[in-house]
Fold:
Amino acid sequence: MKELYYLLSFLLISMSTYHFITAINLVKRLIAVNILGSGVFLFFVATAKNTPSENPDPVPQLKKAIEIIKTGLKGYAHTGG
Amino acid sequence: MLDIIIGLLMLLSAFASLQNKDLLKSGVFFVVFGFMSGLLWIRLSAPDIAMVEIILGSAITSILIFKLSKGVRDIAIKPKLWRRLWAGAGSLVLFVFLTFYLFTVREEERVGGLVFEKLSLSGVESPVTAVLLNFRGYDTLLEVGVITLAVIGILALEPKRKIYEWNDIVVWRFSKIFLPIIALFSLYITYLGAFSVGGAFQGGSLLAGGLAFLSLSGQKLPIRENPTLFLAMLSLAVFVAFAFVYALVGHGFLTYPLELSTLSIMLIEISICISTGLLLYIAIRGRL
Structure:
């Protein structure tokens, strides 16, 4: 069951990498980067959940919150001009 | 079972969003993708992240994407064959290499136990907030700096572009009625971060959602430009000030003394909430 989360994240990562390279439109590329980020964080969150203890590990979890803002804003700052 | 359905919908919407020729449609599918991933974070018992993802990942990033796709015409040129070939081969190799990780993955105790052990020393009760602002505060300081820098970049580039607004009476009335409630609720969520689910970035993104409605309706915050910029940069200033004051007093960089830690963390969190809201508002509006 837990392997499925990892598999989903790997699928998202490789799919969006392909589109990041081939996309000509910059907005398309921005969407691809955002989805790539979601895939990477799915990997982190699945890792956080993958412990024998009851509570998920908070350390991999925390990065995501800021990272969503960062991916969006940085990508926007690059394409916005 | 539910997880599998959510995961499949996530994959499908990501695929649709990436494959679609129409930029507006791929933006809409991106909203669906953000919402589905938010549901998946809840299933993976990470509600803090789910909050940010649903507010930011699906709402605010989509507003930015819609705003961008309005000016940009969708170019129908297909990429060259060799480029598609090496991109396909590269991502396939990437996928195969990543899949090897599945053979080594196993349940193990990571640093989480250490966090729960030292939680009483951090000044807050929520483990995520404790890691975010106390144990690894250094990271968060730099991240706040990155967000601020990104908005400075947007401010430098944007004023050539027209302000993106909908000029819709419904949006205007909605923002007029709900903005005070949203602002109050975002401060409440920020305060709640000390005990349970919530926190500075969650509250800040909620505030940004309210301000985004204000901006889309063609209104402006009733604050002048310099104070807006000052409030947007406030969190970085407060964070750096706390770090250096405690370093000069002799506790170490970003090491809070035990009796003052709750107060310091709350002050930093509230400043981050206000600043994140205003920074995203500036990003959506494109100017102060």
Observations:
- Chain B has a mean pLDDT of 85.
- Chain B touches chain A through 91 residues (CB under 8 Å).
- Residues 47-71 of chain B form the longest helix (25 residues).
